[in-house]
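SUBJECT: protein chain
CONTENTS: sequence, structure tokens:
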Amino acid sequence: GVVLTSARGAHTPAVAEHAIALLMATVRGLGPAIRDAADRTWTARRPAHEVRGLTLGVLGLGSIGEEVATIATALGMTVIGTKRSPEGYSGVARRVVGPDQTLAICQEADAVIVTLPHDDIPAVGPAELAALRDGWIVNVGRGSAIDEAALIEALADGTLRGAGLDVFTTEPLPADSPLWDLPSAVITPHAAWSTDRLAPRIAAVFATNLEAYRGEALWATRVG
């Protein structure tokens, strides 16, 4: 018979690392600096912030979210977050609650990283963005996880200090999107997963599954 498998987990290190990179870029104010460099403009800016000591909210403590939490903890951040089933959680986050308490996490966090999958109802809307006042937000999950219109407004009026975005409601991001013109937004083209080490990791998963198909190992990522 036909056996379906996936490459689940192969993307985890790359996406988590990219999320942290976007967080660092936004917190350190690299977006405006990169724009100035492109214009060959030397601008003395106010002191940047440090990630050490921040409280980071991770929305979606699955495999990618947990990897984000591990890296963030190593960098000196305190991690809190949401998980669909928080009971029995044993990772590095200090406090984990269900998705119904997303607003509370945003109220407590200095910055939020979103690793959530697609949902018809955004997990982060106007109320959550307002709760994150003077903070930063990063999205490496799905564009639909954040109310994009509300995000644009929060960046434009200064409610948020910055956003690092790898995913969007519409992709490619339309040329007329206001996000392109916001200096506090750091944008990458849904590329968090793409690194030089992805193919070898996928090959390793496939090799394990092939051995399992032959009865020589346990399935790594069997579907169903």
